[in-house]
Amino acid sequence: GIPFSAFFPPQASFALPQPTFAQPMPAALFPQGWGGLPNPATAPLRNGGFPGIHLRNHTGGVGLPPGYDYAFPREHTKIHVFKTGPTPPWQQTLWSWDGTNHVKLLVPCTTTVKELMQNLGCTNGDANKNKLHEIQEAGNGRWVKGITISGGDKDRVKKQIAEFGWDKSRTGAPGERPVVWLWCTK
């Protein structure tokens, strides 16, 4: 025989079969982060100074009460609200693609201007200081001031936003009307 035959494996006469499809793998028992520790939780969502972003329920919590669904309005408009501080957008260079300078909202077209202003944080006791400015993009990061609605203008704040042309046609899609850009003061 062969000396020390235990050290020599037998010759394989065929290849072992390999699966040709993805094999399901069991899920990890614990979520693994760096060093085998769980990843930290993400930061909670903030309202960014706009109190109307979150739905407050009758219990004081955020979101729908357990067991309830929400009947959405049929028509919405896309509104982008600048959060640039006290300097108006038409005096700055701001890029529409920079998501850090504005908040994107989907707003029901039946919302009144007063409701929109309150949801955006225009809650000054002096209604004339609460102002909503429509801004239009002029290109190259420049903006042009459009209409301004004051909280003290009782006739205009009662109107629905669709009456100002802020309706479902403001999608920003190619060939359609641009989204609504707003800036608020209070």
Give a quick summary of the entry.
This protein has a single domain (51-185), classed as Ubiquitin-like (UB roll) (Roll), CATH 3.10.20. It has two helices and five strands, in the order ββαββαβ. It has helices at residues 113-119, 154-157, and strands at 76-82, 102-108, 131-139, 142-150, 180-185.
Structural overview:
The chain is mainly beta. The protein has one domain: Ubiquitin-like (UB roll). 6% of the residues lie in helices and 20% in strands. The protein contains two helices and five strands. It has helices at 113-119, 154-157, and strands spanning 76-82, 102-108, 131-139, 142-150, 180-185. It has a five-stranded mixed β-sheet, covered by helices on one side. Strand 3 (131-139) and strand 4 form a beta hairpin. The model has no long low-confidence stretch (mean pLDDT 83).
What is the total tally of β strands? 5
* CATH class term: Alpha Beta
CATH architecture grouping: Roll
Q: In CATH terms, what is the fold-level topology?
A: Ubiquitin-like (UB roll)
Mean pLDDT, to the nearest integer, reads 83
In which order are the strands of the major sheet placed? 2-1-5-3-4
Helix content: under 10%
**Which segments are poorly predicted (pLDDT under 50) over 5 or more consecutive residues?**
none
Mind telling me the CATH superfamily name? Phosphatidylinositol 3-kinase Catalytic Subunit, Chain A, domain 1
Our measurement of the CA-to-CA distance between the termini, rounded to an integer number of angstroms, reads 98 Å
